[in-house]
Amino acid sequence: MDMTALLQGLDLVGTFAFGLSGATLAVRHRLDLVGVLALAVAAALAGGMIRDALLGATPAAALTDGRLLLTALGAGLAGFFFHRALNRLRKPVLVLDALGLGLFAVTGCRRALDHGLDPLPSLILGVLTAVGGGAVRDVLVAEVPRVLREEIYALAALVGGLVLVAGLRLGLPEPAVALAAVAAAFVLRIVSVLRGWSAPRPPGT
Amino acid sequence: MDMTALLQGLDLVGTFAFGLSGATLAVRHRLDLVGVLALAVAAALAGGMIRDALLGATPAAALTDGRLLLTALGAGLAGFFFHRALNRLRKPVLVLDALGLGLFAVTGCRRALDHGLDPLPSLILGVLTAVGGGAVRDVLVAEVPRVLREEIYALAALVGGLVLVAGLRLGLPEPAVALAAVAAAFVLRIVSVLRGWSAPRPPGT
Amino acid sequence: MDMTALLQGLDLVGTFAFGLSGATLAVRHRLDLVGVLALAVAAALAGGMIRDALLGATPAAALTDGRLLLTALGAGLAGFFFHRALNRLRKPVLVLDALGLGLFAVTGCRRALDHGLDPLPSLILGVLTAVGGGAVRDVLVAEVPRVLREEIYALAALVGGLVLVAGLRLGLPEPAVALAAVAAAFVLRIVSVLRGWSAPRPPGT
C-alpha cells in the first residue's frame, strides 16, 4: 500500500473540510463571494502558510502544490452555493474536520522535524498548522478564535503530534506511526465532542 | 519610454494612497500618532510583506527599498495632520486607491511568476498583495475587512492579474501588458464604485 | 563581564514578562488553558516571529532556541495558575515588561542590521519586534491593540532603537551601546507610566 499517496489524499480531504468551515462562517456573517472564498482559503491554508513562513520552507506548500489551492477554492464555492444543505450535514462535516485536524497536526509536525527542529517546537508548529487556519478565519470576522475558548481541539492536535514524535523516537516504521498519530488526534477530537469535554479553565474563574 | 521607472513611480503613488486609507481609518478610530503611523504602514505595505514572506523573497521588499517605508510613513503623517482636508478629498483619494489596487495586483502577480509559481497561485498572490494590507488595517481596528463584505475590490485586482497572465501567455510585450492589466483593474474598480456594483452574495441570504 | 550572556538572560526575563501579559489577558477574557498558553506564546514570541519571517532569518529564532518557547509556555502556566496573585503584582510585572520592551527593540533592531538592512527599516523592525507580540495578543481577543491607542510604548521602543543605531554609527563599543539603548527605552517607558504621558493625538480630535 502506498502510504504517502494515502496521506496526501487524506490531506486534501482535510483541506476541503477546513475550507467548508471558513465558507460557512463567511455565509453566516453575510460576506460576499470574495469573503466566502477568502475565508475558505484562510481556514484551509493559513495554518500551513504560517508554518512555512516561520520555517523558511518557501515558497509555501500552499503556493507550489496547486491541488491545495484548488481544493480550498472548491470548498469555498461549495459553501457559497450549498450552505443550506451543509447546515444539515453538520455531523459528516465535523468528522471530516476532525480528520483534517489530525492530518494537519501530523504533517505539520513532520515538516518541522524534517527542517531540523527539536521535538518541542515541532509539536507547537504541528498544532499551529492544525489550528492556525481556523484562528485566522475567526479573526477575519472579528471573533475570538474558537480554538482559544472552547472544546478539545488544539489538545487533540497536540496528542497527535506527541504520538508521532514518540513513535519516531522509538524507531517504529513511519507510515504506521503517522496513521496512529492521525487516528489519536481524530479519536480524541470526536470523543471530546460526543462527551462535551472542554479544555481546563483557570482556577477560580 | 522607461516603463520600469514609470511603474515604480506609480507604485509609490499607490503606496501613498493605501497609506492614507490606513491613516484616515486610524483617525476615525481615535488612535494616537503611533496608531496612525502603524495603520498607514500596515495598509500600504502588509500585503507585499505577506507576499514576500510566503514566497521566501526575503528580506521583504518593504524593508530593502527605503522609498516604500518613507512613502508609507509620509502618508501616515499627512493623514495625522491633514485628516480634515482629506475628508474633503474623497474622490481623488479613491482614484489613487484604485490605481494602487491595480498596480499592487500586477506587481504582486509578476513577482510570484518570477519566483516560478504557476498562474493560479500567482493570481491569488497578486490579489493578496493588493488587498492584504487593507485587510490587516481593518483587523487592527477590530473590524471585518471591507474587502470581504462589499463592493468590487478583490475582483478588480483579480481581473488585473488575469490580464497580465493572459498577455504574457500570448507573448505580448510585457510593458504594454502590465499597463493594460493595471488599467483593467483600475477601470473596473472605478466603474463599480460609480455604478454601485457589489460582489455576488450567497444564494438565499 | 560577558555582555552577550547578560543580554540573553535579560531577553528571557522579557520573554517571561510578555508571556505573563498574554496569559493574564487570556484569563480576563475567560479563555481556557489552550487560550492562555496561546496568548502567552503570541505575546512573547510573535513579534520576533514576524521579524524573522520578513527578514528571511528562518527557521525563526523562537523555533530554534528552545529556551524562548519554554519560557513563554512557563509564563502561560504561571498566568493560568496564579492569575490572582499576578493581579496584585502589577508594578513588578510592569517593570519587567518595560525591560522586555527595551530588550526586544534593541535585539530586533540589531538582528535587522546584521541582515544588512538600512537604519530606518531596522528601527521599524526593532519596534515591530517589541510591540508586535502584544498587538497579535490583543487581536486574538478581538481588541484594538493597546499599543495603537494609548501610552508611550512603541515610542519608547523607537528611542531604544535610535540610541542603538546612533551609538553604532559613532563607533562606540557595542555592549555599552546596547545597554544604553535598553536603558533609554526602559526609562522612557517607566517615566511615561508614572507621569501618565501619552503619544500625541491627531489635531482637532
From TrEMBL, chains A, B, C:
Residues 10-84, 95-166 form the Glycine transporter domain. It is a multi-pass membrane protein. The keyword Protease does not apply. The chain crosses the membrane at residues 6-27, 34-54, 66-86, 152-170, 176-197. Keywords: Cell membrane, Membrane, Transmembrane, Transmembrane helix. The keyword Protein biosynthesis does not apply. It is found in: Cell membrane. It comes from the Bacteria. Belongs to the UPF0126 family. This is Trimeric intracellular cation channel family protein. It comes from Rubellimicrobium aerolatum.
